[in-house]
Specification:
heterodimer, A: mainly alpha, two-stranded antiparallel sheet, 5 helices, B: 161 residues, 2 domains, four-stranded antiparallel beta sheet, 3 helices, 45% strand
Chain lengths: 147, 161
């Protein structure tokens, strides 16, 4: 029967985590210790089994699909750069005012908004939001992935 | 008096020609949208025995290349000509696609699931640019297969020349 320290040393030996000196000591003691040999063999077998049968997590879509979504979200959330010139500081007020006016015009001319644009551009509109939209202009494809 | 009548008839003819000329482009644009709808099944496995499924064509597979499945089997494929005045219900095996064009140049798509008891349930409503479809863009609605883990279904709508 071995103590805890010896057992931990054997486990560290199997995992290749012992110092050089300690590893030599364990290797020197192993040929005369049948229990230790059996334990080392068992630990090695267990490690092999775990590595061979480790479950592999897969996402249902490709890497490009997810990066495209992340990139779009980052681009959408990036703040606008401040105005370059102090002389044009009034534009900071004028542009939002024009934006508000434009929104007011759009809202007043379309009293019942029923569509939400999810994927950018004027080509795709989505009435509900229970799906993820992937759109590639270059590939000429729009995918609505139902959640 | 006779000359006056001739002039009136002449105006009438010209009027008819103008009206027909104005209506002809409308009539041609109303029926020029030809679509192909396909229900495809994405899987890493082979096609099920006993079912005569064909593989999705190269263009379709190219559009789906961002997805990871090895095989895309076409369960049902149909071609329609869309009339702008009316809606069309297109059955696709276990789903049904309702299509109609909108006045603002979009195709409205309503996807329904159909169960064994033929009950129809709305799954998704969306709109897509008609111009984009005419340019050859693919509109795909897809999701995980709830009956078979790790597989997926794809409803593929594409404009046909």
């Amino acid at each position: 029967m071995k103590n805890t320290e010896q057992l931990l040393d054997l486990q560290a030996y199997v995992d290749g985590e012992l110092s050089e000196e300690r590893r030599r000591q364990v290797e020197a003691a192993l040929p005369a210790d049948l229990d230790a040999q059996e334990l080392v063999a068992g630990l090695r077998q267990l490690g092999t089994l775990i590595r061979a049968h480790e479950p592999e997590a897969k996402v249902p879509a490709s890497r490009e699909f997810y990066w495209n979504q992340i990139r779009r979200q980052i681009e959408a959330e990036q703040p606008k750069a401040p105005a370059a010139s102090v002389a044009l500081g009034w534009l900071r007020w004028l542009i939002p005012a024009l934006g508000v006016a434009a929104v007011a015009v759009v809202v007043s001319t379309r009293p019942v908004p029923r569509e939400i644009t999810l994927a950018g551009g004027g080509d795709v509109t989505d009435v509900d939001v229970s799906s993820t939209v992937f759109r590639s202009e270059s590939d000429g494809v729009t995918v609505h992935w139902i959640q | 008096m006779k000359r006056l009548w001739i002039n009136r008839l002449g105006f009438l003819r010209v009027g008819c020609v103008l009206v027909l000329g104005a209506l002809t482009p409308l009539a041609s644009s109303a029926s020029d949208l030809r679509l192909r709808l396909e229900l495809a099944w994405g899987t890493d496995g082979t096609a099920p025995e006993g079912k005569n499924l064909r593989e999705l064509d190269a263009k379709g597979r190219e559009k789906l290349r961002h997805f990871r499945w090895k095989n895309y089997w076409v369960v049902k494929s149909t071609q329609i000509e869309l009339d702008s005045k009316g809606a069309q219900k297109v059955p696709l095996d276990r789903c049904q696609v309702d299509l109609k064009t909108t006045s603002d140049g979009h195709l409205e798509v309503r996807l329904h699931s159909v169960n064994d008891a033929k009950e129809v349930k709305l799954v998704k409503t969306l709109q897509h640019s008609l111009e984009a479809l005419k340019r050859g863009e693919f509109l795909i609605i897809a999701g995980d297969d709830k009956e078979k883990w790790n597989d997926a279904w794809f409803v593929i709508i594409r404009g046909e020349p």
